[in-house]
């Protein structure tokens, strides 16, 4: 018997009034993957997260989680998923332990099972010595760990996290990722995140890049960067269009202007830089060479920088 996909998304679209937030998104996520929905603000990540977590009703297309449709088996889906929201869901006036027990009451987890799962999570998330602390006295990183404990208390097979690194310092972010990787390795949990952080997406098994509600790329981080290939050259110029024309006419280099910078991809970056400086140094204010990044993937797919705002 073939195991169902952890998540199957088929032709999902969503509207807020007349504004279309998602357009025909189709993809699947395998059990045990760490999967990131990556995109700038307004890309559609949060809308898709709300649909996956059953916070919003699906109007166009279908989503199945472990073989159960969110349309027809919403209760069963909720039993299989853990959810950590971007906005805090903790009661700041309660202790760490009280917050966890409050979550347990929602799932009917009591007695020896509650004690067993609580002890395991406190140990795994390094919260044992903080379990009696009031939440409002904790750092942002510790609060995030308590959120994770709540989300994992009922042992879900799929864990959904919305921008989980928001407000975390680098050390807390690394600790969170160690835990997520252990969930996948030790328990086979499928971990699905939304993020607008390019460096965070590098840690995923696969990435789906969303932009203006559309799926523009889907693959492993390395495979996406390999599609760009070679080296990336970025040039700052006071006359970008004149430089682009000269590179095309004299060096047969295909460059484009992105956010007031001239960019091009080439197989041999150092050799290309030498030719550019020989032919057009008077038009170059600064020039840099780098291997392709996820930012370059986004630019190749959309024609603009990742952080560039788009007017709806």
UniProtKB/TrEMBL annotation:
Keywords: ATP-binding, Hydrolase, Nucleotide-binding. Its EC number is 3.6.3.-. Pfam families: ABC_tran. This is Daunorubicin/doxorubicin resistance ATP-binding protein DrrA. One of its GO terms (molecular function) is ATP hydrolysis activity. It comes from the Bacteria. Coiled coil: none annotated. InterPro entries: AAA+_ATPase, ABC_transporter-like_ATP-bd, P-loop_NTPase. Residues 7-237 form the ABC transporter domain. Gene3D superfamilies: P-loop containing nucleotide triphosphate hydrolases.
